[in-house]
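Q: I have two molecules that I believe assemble together. Could you output structure tokens for the complex as a whole instead of separate predictions?
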Amino acid sequence: MPAPGRPRGLAFRGPADLAATRRMIERIREVYELYGFEALETPFVEYTETLGKFLPDLDRPNEGVFSFPDDDEQWLSLRYDLTAPLARHVAARLDEQSLTLPYRSYRAGWVFRNEKPGPGRFRQFMQFDADTVGAASVAADAEICMMAADTLEAVGIPRGRYVVKVNNRKILDGVMEAIGLGGEDNAARRLTVLRAIDKLDRLGPEGVRQLLGEGRKDESGDVTKGANLPAGQIDRIIRYTEVNPPGRLTEDRGGHKTFTADNLAVADQLLDEFGESELAAQGIEELRSIAKLTKAAGYEDHVIRIDPSVVRGLEYYTGPVYEAELILQTTNDQGQPVRFGSVAGGGRYDGLVGRFRPEAVPATGFSIGVSRLLSALEAIGSPIVAGDEEPGPVVVMVMDRERVADYQRMVAGLRRAGIRSELYLGSAGMKPQMKYADRRRAPCVVIQGSNEKADGTVQVKDLRAGAEQARQETAASNAAYRAARFAQVTIPEGQLVDAVREILARTAD
RNA sequence: GCCGCCAUAGCUCAGUUGGUUAGAGCACCAGAUUGUGGAUCUGGGGGUCCCCCGUUCGAGCCGGGGUGGCGGUACCA
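A: Yes, here they are, computed for all two components at once.
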């Protein structure tokens, strides 16, 4: 007999979770549509080759991807994101000349990664992406940032409680150049440095300094090797990340907290310190344009904010990169503070479609981590996901096993009236049926035993009101409790639908 | 991947230097109540003590290996 085991990192989702996800996705979709993006679905499975090897860790190619050979011995893989399949799809459509650029597309779907799962981290999870392909202008990047902001607000996160952080890979590359880490020889070291910068949020400047130097020991005593840079270079990198200190909050008199930000001042300072690199200067200019565009459209500097510490992955981004983060102070079950990482991120990837084409095809886009955003919404009590669990169906009880046809007729009548209802399909007696209805969150039960049948009546019991009355009568004896038949009425069978409707109307409050 | 901690009933956990038949609370089921979800009382069902190997007269407890979970770290397309 096999054990009904579930592979780790693969979750099941119940009705409440599914309903919340559905509502959230619908809000996101509305925003994407409003911006003129159109729906697209691509397959879950692609040729391994077309997904590409954008693994920064070249020692472990294909690790993290579920792969298997097709019957023609070509390797197939489950998609690990929605961007690589989009690039392939766009290239194919361009080949057959059936696509007009710029192309705005959005896609929601499951993606798969074969790696160690953790809390909130699964081997199958959902992303919701939007991408503009064929637009080289930073206006496309600015638009993505604004849409990210609008999306977060549409799902119930107020302005000021999130920030869309923007940086540019050209600046990072330029800074590496400026401090003498350019060239092929330093590629490995640059990688280590970028990864260290990416950890600024979590480890703080001291931790980053250790990673840039000799290395860092974590709380378990394990050691992460450092980049072994000389002190002068380390100082310069730290100074770079602190051009706009991340996480700095100001609190107004009402206790409301916001990030301070002045995007153009940040750009000026970056140019001042690293403008010697032509690449950095170009990247800074792009950020300046994005800042002007978003500001002109009404997004303040603390909503879409230049943050030099944003790195975002390591491989295919070529220009502006973005990351949406929630500014939340929440605690877990043990009362410890929880930090939410980014709930969405993206950037410009001008080389990805070009893998399949003779010409370069610029593209930019971003991706929302659906379940991560969902748990963030739960943490802040967003109305989209909060609220009572949905009530269950009306339960018609089986009092007399020979008369199932009668009960089925009552259920059919309720359903024809648009009332969610069900016949009790188990084999237990009346008391378990009551318990069953209770656990189904049924608003009421319908009872017709032989007595009622003889009178042509049915009894309808309002379970919510009944529970309320029972709570107030705790002193009464059990016999009295049962005899009272709280919140239970006898009505002619013909009035069943009306009586149930009345209870549903009460329950809806 | 690496480092650390943990694993006993459906859940949360006790379990003495290794020693009878492994317990509690909650949950579940039944009866008190021949037709009523709560509360109360009474009773009941539930255990591969994560798995395998070893040490021992004897292992839930000690040792080794494995699996799973949690925390950190790495990676995160």
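A: One point stands out. DSSP finds 17 helices and 22 strands in chain A.
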